[in-house]
Amino acid sequence: MEMVSKVLASDLEWWFHGPPECQHMMKVLTGETALNKGFKFEPRSFTSIGDCVITEGWEGQAYWVHVWTLKNGLITQFREYFNTWLVVRDLSPPRWEIKQNSLTLWQSQPRDLYRRSLPGLVLAI
Q1: What CA–CA distances, in Å, run from 11 to 28, 40, 46?
Q2: What is the pTM of this model?
Q3: What is the CATH number of the domain that holds 42?
């Protein structure tokens, strides 16, 4: 817990989308539970976009995406999504030569869930 407190901003902003029983990572970050209790943090992919790091993985029956925002070596924002398709879009002013599809920076790739119907969200950065 001491190590975790060194990388979290004191005013950490946390967003969660999913069933309440899936709030695993926040419980780990706050010291409420140990990382090895009930949740396997085994990311399948890591992607860095600007000051954000996006990880996605699979835990039992839940597909998850984490979006970590870092500033000056600290985690300032943490977004946690469970069983949700996520698309990350760039909302900076478009240039005429850029096609609309190029504004999508990242999207969920849950290979095991391609036939499953999940709610979708757009994260604008």
Answers
A1: 17, 26, 25
A2: 0.77
A3: 3.10.450
